[in-house]
Backbone:
């Protein structure tokens, strides 16, 4: 009897918290935004972010032949030693997925699990560099890596990859079409360049950009409140530019440490102690569908990721209301063109 | 050329880290344990933990009729308002799952998501109380809660539940068999008692108990090293007894805070400020298959959960080796009887 009573007390507690916790996004709590206020917020957003450009850097020389070849390569499991995985296995661009596999670490050709979270391939070519630690300067350089990584696609050598592709009449013809005039069309560099050409087509479209372009109805009041919170508490120190990230390296654990002390981040690339625990700031475009979060995929929910980032990087203890509005804002960054949202 | 070179450098870095990071559990690194050392470790384990008892408290009055009725109720979606979910929807005991649904928060009958992670029902009756905040004193009291919680199964009243059950000839007969001699067999209390009787059968079996019972081959050297690490660094301050948890309440964020500042934990039950952020210490039996972790399901991986617990509760920065061995040890707590492991 006593425990039933306690439970019922708690039911009301839970019911009340439905309205006020980060996991329940109830519209209608935010202050109403009128036309003037929306125009101000649009100007603020444009200052910090701006819309995604229509074309990706380096795409000037791309053409349909090259993009078509790249797409075929991107989905081809022949690029892994035992024909088990393709680029798309870890960076999923099909089925409404956000360019990731939603696993903390991805599974390689032989079943090993990587210790870093696969970053999204969508919009990737807009970033200052590739990989969490920025060790590849562009998409082409990135594409060469996982194919040969023993923990990923595990091909023994560039030559072994080319041997496979050369045995395929279709590939031989496609490479010649994609790289006309080249003395040897079917090279490892050209393979990577074709994959990059395909990846340069992977640009998202979302309601945040609709709002920035002038659509006053594109975002809810709670989402706009989240945009205000996001810009006012300091998130934009790192999450700036059209990607809301991808533009700078930053130490994870700036004010309070991140509890994975084993991954030293960019120091492994630069051998500079100042780069210990530095990682490329990830883009927040599509963030709602690209969990789990952080470089090791250690964080399960976006709500906790937001709370943890605020505390760890800014020293802030976010309230439920702040978390809730920021989560709503981040939801406006979800790709409409692939997910139908 | 330069970026390829950098990448290859990194490949070796990654390859080296395969052996040394928490996500890759490579056997053979641990020191060899001989018969004497194993006997010492067995004594240590028995002091801190001991094997799971063969029967659960309160099961003395249980019988097959009651357990059978309870099992039927446990899997029956009629206990939710729109017939969409059963007890088993959030606390999955089928398909080799560890008594949970592996979601950060569980989805209620009408699609809302709870802000606490569904705890495992396996071994639950061995715990000092039920729910993360201990607001139900036993399994029977617990079973009454979610059925009526508007965010969970959302039945409007006890009477509404009984009305449904009474309309079913089979249930009417089963209740009479399960509670013979009762003036009214089909009551809400008896429904909960039958579910509890079923839940009292849910006891796991694992290799850690095999080891504690004397099987020197039950655990690998790395797992034994993890047991030593676990007991030596202070985890046993809270994770004690046969469940490696479930015996005390403790503040989450003892040395460094947990970043979700909105869920005050047991304070909501006791109205005592000293209980702010206190939660029942969860059992570690089956922990490897019951993620995501912590009361809000905010942590995605067991490796990060271990590192974060060590830092947050003990102020320790775990090395890769410590994390790896503890993870191996925790793997020995996975239920063999349900998962075949």
Residues:
């Amino acid at each position: 009897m006593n425990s039933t009573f306690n439970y019922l007390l708690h039911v009301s507690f839970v019911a009340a918290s439905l309205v006020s916790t980060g996991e329940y996004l109830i519209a209608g709590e935010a202050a109403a935004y009128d036309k003037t206020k929306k125009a101000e917020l649009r100007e603020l957003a444009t200052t910090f972010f701006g819309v995604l450009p229509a074309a990706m850097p380096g795409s000037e020389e791309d053409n349909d032949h090259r993009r078509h070849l790249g797409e075929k390569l991107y989905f081809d499991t022949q690029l892994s030693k035992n024909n088990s995985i393709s680029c798309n296995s870890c960076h999923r661009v099909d089925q409404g997925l956000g360019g990731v596999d939603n696993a903390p670490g991805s599974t390689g050709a032989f079943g090993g699990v990587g210790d870093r979270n696969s970053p999204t391939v969508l919009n990737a070519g807009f970033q200052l560099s590739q990989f969490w630690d920025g060790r590849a300067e562009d998409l082409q350089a990135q594409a060469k890596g996982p194919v040969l990584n023993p923990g990923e696609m595990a091909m023994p050598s560039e030559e072994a990859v080319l041997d496979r592709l050369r045995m395929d009449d279709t590939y031989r013809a496609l490479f010649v079409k994609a790289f006309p005039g080249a003395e040897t069309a079917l090279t490892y560099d050209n393979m990577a360049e074709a994959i990059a050409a395909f990846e340069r087509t992977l640009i998202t479209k979302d309601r945040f950009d609709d709002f920035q372009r002038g659509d006053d109805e594109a975002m809810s009041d709670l989402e706009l409140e989240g945009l205000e919170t996001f810009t006012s508490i300091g998130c934009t120190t790192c999450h700036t530019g059209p990607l809301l990230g991808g533009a700078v390296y930053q130490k994870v654990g700036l004010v309070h440490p991140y509890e994975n002390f084993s991954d030293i981040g960019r120091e492994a690339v630069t051998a500079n102690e100042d780069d210990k625990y530095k990682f490329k700031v990830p883009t927040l475009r599509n963030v709602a569908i690209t969990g789990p979060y952080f470089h090791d995929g250690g964080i399960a929910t976006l709500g906790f990721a937001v709370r943890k980032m605020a505390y760890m990087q800014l020293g802030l203890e976010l309230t439920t209301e702040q978390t809730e509005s920021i989560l709503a804002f981040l939801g406006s960054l979800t790709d409409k063109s692939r997910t139908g949202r």
Observations:
- Residues 1-28 of chain B have pLDDT under 50 and may be disordered.
- Chain B touches chain A through 67 residues (CB under 8 Å).
- The two ends of chain B are 47 Å apart (CA to CA).
- The first strand of chain B starts at residue 249 and ends at 251.
